[in-house]
Design brief:
Elements (H helix, E strand, L loop, with lengths): L6 H5 L13 E6 L4 H17 L3 E7 L6 H13 L4 E5 L14 H11 L1 H17 L8 E7 L6 H8 L3 E5 L3 H14 L35 H14 L4 E4 L7 H8 L5 E4 L16 H12 L6 E5 L8 H14 L2 E5 L25 H4 L4 E4 L4 H5 L4 E6 L3 H9 L4 E3 L6 H11 L3 E3 L13 H14 L1 H18 L4 H15 L1
Parallel strand pairs: 1-2, 1-4, 2-3, 4-5, 5-6, 6-7, 8-9, 8-11, 9-10, 11-12, 12-13
The structure holds uridine-5'-diphosphate.
Length: 499
């Protein structure tokens, strides 16, 4: 890994700047320990240091023992890191038992907050090292601390140390708008949570009113709501908000966010790791087996099903998918994973998927389908055999799918995915609907609906396919020299240098 940089990075032309003329500028990053948070943060750090030789980056790592796959990713990045990117593992902290938390965001927010003294210590050391490195009368300095949507407690550290703090938002501008709206909504709510919300939300980031049924499960629950509100309130304290999106995809939403009283907004995406887990996942044999199988399938013939880094569905739901999929008669690749050990763990891998699939399913579909565990999703989306993607609508997955021009059928499972699905289908017409408001555990999409949705995805909607291909081209253009995201990254760099 590290040798194959993503295409979007390759497309960027470096600025011609003499680093000695200004001194080196250090950027510090801290992310929530999840694949969907860390990967885009690493890519963003790469974009900045690749764009301008004055920058170097330090990424502070919070470790969660429950997520060995995340730790594997971090280790691989550490091993392959370029000289201008370094990783610092923060010391472990004592936490109350995760069982005491209803909601994983509540636990993770608390875990991160406990790292505050370690983050302060690490940045203080970096500042001391920067001063010592002053050999040309142009001292190095820390030009910015980048936090993500759940690491807002580090705003305090930035304030204490006098460092400008920026929010890096790895979800769409629509969801950023929702977060920015939460404090306003909260002042009108009684009782103070969203469980009783029965009317649609009218937000400047959405063309349509947003039904409560597509709000994230976490904010509909007391503990989660309190934490989301807590983080959202702090966003306005930052000096700028960087969003992993591009204006051509979300023009209305980016304008909507900008119309609020918020810090400067920089859409710099899509920042993608186009090499993906194919470069770092320990099970390369499995990866090669999947890719070889795809090589044997006709172009655009395969529907790919994958429900995210944290996605696993109930036994009855898996059976309904299997029945619906089999009825379509289409070629398929299904990343099927089992329940996690706890809500903080990533889903487990089935030793034998027969334990959850209908009797004889694997034998009957052996000629047309492949059921597998964790896969390098972005490598699969890049394969010419893929014709459609049944996706949980995580934002990284949406950006990857658009980049490769593969249409999505929406099946949101957790986090802000219901809202993303709503945006893709109702706001942008860039996806086919299977469900927009699915709640894992309580809902069941029956086989008929699965069959209908997949057939529509693969055979039915040429207009969606055409629009997706066009948006894919726009996403690549946005990252090229003078593209919208390239320009926005340049504006951010000017601001960082001027701090
Ligand atoms: N991913 C993958 N293989 C899988 C599941 C997920 O490579 O089996 C990658 C996917 O390509 C994406 C990231 O994990 O880059 C998931 O991020 P996203 O924002 O889509 O959803 P999350 O998992 O954070 O909910």
């Amino acid at each position: 890994m590290g040798k194959t940089r993503s295409k979007c990075t390759l497309n960027l032309q470096k600025r011609v700047v003499n680093p000695m003329a200004t001194g080196k500028l250090e950027l510090v990053f801290i992310s929530t320990p999840g694949i969907g948070n860390l990967v885009p943060l690493f890519e963003f750090a790469h974009l900045l240091v690749d764009h301008d030789p004055r920058f170097s980056a330090t990424i502070l790592i919070v470790t969660m023992p429950q997520r060995p796959l995340v730790n594997t990713y971090v280790q691989s990045r550490a091993a392959a890191a370029a000289s201008n990117i370094r990783l610092i593992h923060l010391p472990a902290v004592e936490t109350p038992s995760p069982d005491q938390f209803q909601n994983s965001i509540a636990y993770i927010s608390m875990l991160i907050e406990k790292h505050r003294p370690h983050v302060k210590h690490a940045i203080t050391d970096l500042m001391a090292a920067a001063i010592e490195s002053d050999s040309n009368h142009f001292p190095s300095r820390i030009a910015g601390l980048f936090i993500d949507m759940f690491t807002t407690s580090m705003i305090d550290v930035a304030n204490e140390l006098g460092i400008p703090c920026y929010l890096y938002f790895a979800s769409p501008a629509t969801f950023l708008g929702f977060m920015l709206h939460l404090p306003i909504l909260d002042s009108k709510l009684n009782p103070t949570d969203l469980s009783g919300l029965d009317s649609d939300l009218v937000l400047p980031e959405f063309v349509n009113p947003v039904p409560p049924s597509v709000l994230p499960s976490s904010v509909l629950q007391k503990e989660g709501y309190a934490w989301f509100l807590h983080h959202a309130r702090r966003y306005a304290e930052t000096k700028g908000i960087i969003v992993n999106t591009f204006v051509e995809l979300e023009p209305h939403s980016v304008n909507g966010v900008r119309s609020r009283q918020v810090p400067a907004v920089y859409p710099i995406g899509p920042a993608l790791d186009l090499a993906g887990p194919a470069q770092w996942h320990p099970d390369q044999v499995h990866h090669r087996k999947v890719m070889t199988w795809l090589d044997d399938q006709p172009p655009s013939s395969v529907v790919f099903l994958c429900f995210g880094s944290m996605g696993s569905l109930s036994g009855p739901q898996v059976k309904e998918i299997a029945i619906g999929l089999e009825r379509t008669g289409l070629h398929f690749l299904w990343a099927l994973r089992g329940p996690p050990k706890t809500q903080l763990h990533l889903p487990s891998e089935y030793k034998d998927p027969n334990e959850v699939l209908p009797n004889g399913f694997l034998e009957r579909t052996a000629g047309v389908g492949l059921v597998c565990g964790w896969v390098s999703q972005v490598s699969i989306l890049a394969h010419k055999a893929i014709g459609g993607f049944v996706s949980h609508c995580g934002w990284n997955s949406i950006l990857e799918s658009l980049w490769h021009g593969v249409p999505i059928a929406t099946w949101p499972v957790y986090a802000e995915q219901q809202m993303n699905a709503f945006q893709m289908v109702r706001e942008l017409g860039l996806a086919v609907e299977i469900t927009l408001d699915y709640r894992a555990g309580s809902d069941l999409v029956v086989a008929d609906e699965v069959e209908r949705g997949i057939k529509r995805l693969m055979d039915g909607d040429d207009e969606v396919r055409r629009k997706v291909k066009e948006m894919g081209k726009k996403s690549r253009m946005a990252m090229m020299e003078n593209g919208s995201s390239y320009t926005s990254l340049g504006a951010l760099i000017e601001a960082l240098v001027g701090n």
